[in-house]
TrEMBL record:
Matching InterPro entries: DUF4164
Coiled coil (residue ranges): 45-82
Origin species: Hellea balneolensis
Protein name, UniProt field: DUF4164 family protein
Keyword Coiled coil on entry: yes
Coiled coil among keywords: yes
Length: 105
């Protein structure tokens, strides 16, 4: 091979390599764009998952508060019923005492 044909062959090889690299780059661009889209979606999914977990935690907390309030409500109802019975007893005793005092006068 002569120096000119060797240079030409190297030049052709370099051009072919450049052409192949250009085609590869063109083929990869849509894939790179798709990966970017998928990464964006993944971040959105992570955000949604975090929001869901936070909401689930808040729901659990509210359920616990609700249960506590129901228990307190039952206790208040029990105390109110007990107080009502005691008041009825006291009223009856007062009426009896007044009746005894009133009938003897």
């Amino acid at each position: 091979m002569t120096e000119t044909s060797s240079t030409l062959t190297m030049q052709q090889a370099a051009e072919r390599l450049q052409s192949a690299l250009g085609k590869l780059e063109n083929a990869l661009e849509p894939m790179i764009a798709r990966v970017g889209e998928l990464e964006t979606r993944l971040e959105k999914v992570k955000t949604i998952d975090a929001d869901r977990a936070k909401l689930a935690s808040e729901v659990d907390e509210l359920k616990a508060q609700n249960q506590s309030l129901r228990e307190r409500e039952k206790e208040f109802a029990r105390l109110a019923a007990e107080t009502t019975r005691e008041l009825e007893t006291v009223i009856a005793e007062v009426q009896t005492a007044l009746g005894e005092n009133g009938s003897g006068a």
